[in-house]
Amino acid sequence: MDNIHKDIPFGSPVQVGQGVFLLKMPLPFRLDHINLYLIDDQDGWILVDTGLNHRAVRETWEALADTVFQQKPIKKILITHLHPDHIGQAAWLQRRFKADAYISEGDWLMAQRLWFSPAESAIPRYAAHYRAFGVDGERFEQLIENRGNYQRLVKELPLQVKFLRAGDIISAASGDWRVVSGSGHSPEHLCLWNEASREMITGDHVLPKITPNIGIIVGGLSNPLENYLLSLEDFLAIDCARYFPAHGLPSENYHERIAEIKMHHHRQLQKLLSGCGEPTTVYEAVGMLFNTELPPHQYMFALGETAAHLRYLESIGLMHREGEKTWSFKSVSQADQQREETACASSV
Predict the structure, then answer these.
(1) What is the pLDDT of residues 130-150, one digit of tens each?
(2) Which of 190, 328, 345, 346 has a CA-to-CA distance to 212 between 20 and 30 Å?
(3) Beta-bridge partners for 243
(4) Cα dihedral sign, 100-105-109-110
(5) Is the pTM of this model over 0.90?
(6) HEC profile for 252-281?
């Protein structure tokens, strides 16, 4: 995709594939953009993801609705997953264009739980969650204070949705797109695969420069890194030549990038195995993987991702976890592993 300039303007659709247009929208974060995608369907468009509930995004959509999409409207809205930058404008766009909205059942149920969980009544659950990670003091207060961002960043959910599952086909003028489902970054993240053109819209599941956050959150997956690594194996089997990510430029290094992401997580796991020779809380282990001087929102992601890596190591027998109210992890030594194997063998 060398012909695509790195400075793609916000709010101006740019063709990137066979009947596929990239629509870049701003984000008010360190990660300052999200790529939405438009699939040409002759008399209308199929939109993949919607952008954040943010003034600049809404203003961009209002201008586009009155110009680009006035004669050729959005017919379907496909939401790859529940995160605010992907679902935030879905309700407004659904009303504006009278379009059907589609999402996975797993992500819809999670979005409902986050949306309809009253901020004040949720405090005990969030408190127990962060206490389990060993967080206290000022960091604990910051995390509790920032717990209710989903409602603010989304503002409203679509009134009605239709569920998509792996294997479903989305037909368009540019060809058929098969739904491919991955898990880890969210419960049931949807991607779209066009076998004829060998192109895939990957959302956040496969990104060209950064890795998607794989973290343990309140009410989320219990072992998200296991889910993610297993799903990457399924994605490796797909003969994709070009992929369209939610962040970064469309890229052609699909299989190489998946291998890089797997190696990244392997290195993170090795750091924890080396660093947790003594019982260590998630809070104490964050510094092994991330800069601990992060603002609250980014620190929340770092904390959840550290927990996910420790939990994965526990699940494959390389970490012991102790404690109920506060977790503590310790690497399993080779001697410990041999003793466990001997005990298992003698019990058979």
Answers:
(1) 999 999 999 999 999 887 678
(2) 328
(3) 200, 251
(4) negative
(5) yes
(6) CCHHHHHHHHHHHHHHHHHHHHHHCCCCEC
